[in-house]
Amino acid sequence: MFSRKSKNTIDSLIGAATVIEGNLHFKGGLRVDGHIRGNVVADSELSSMLVISEQARIDGEVRAAHVVVNGAINGPVFSSELLELQAKARISGDVHYKTLEMQGGAMVTGKLSHDLAQEPVLKLAASNA
Length: 129
Prior knowledge:
Elements: E1 12-14, E2 19-21, E3 24-26, E4 29-32, E5 35-37, E6 40-42, E7 49-52, E8 57-59, E9 62-69, E10 72-74, E11 77-85, E12 90-92, E13 95-102, E14 107-109, E15 112-113
Parallel strand pairs: 1-4, 2-5, 3-6, 4-7, 5-8, 6-9, 7-9, 8-10, 9-11, 10-12, 11-13, 12-14, 13-15
């Protein structure tokens, strides 16, 4: 029914009590519940998924294919596939995306740039395409 969502799984977890200082590179899926002071970059942006939970905070650049945000990011965000901003998402920085889903309450302080895709991103719910 919801086949448009990627089927990535979470391979790694950064716990709520964890603080990382420095850049973090990952493959596959990563869920962040803690605090990272550094860039979070997927080594393979084609099949990566990053989930930033409600209590998580990242001070640095974020790069992944599928990014789900419900916490705070202070820095630019680059999503080469789908960016989901949930209700408690707070981003201070420019956001670059291919496809964007934004729930009410999510906040972005920065520029939204749809510059990673060449095909139309808006489809009507009743569309059979």
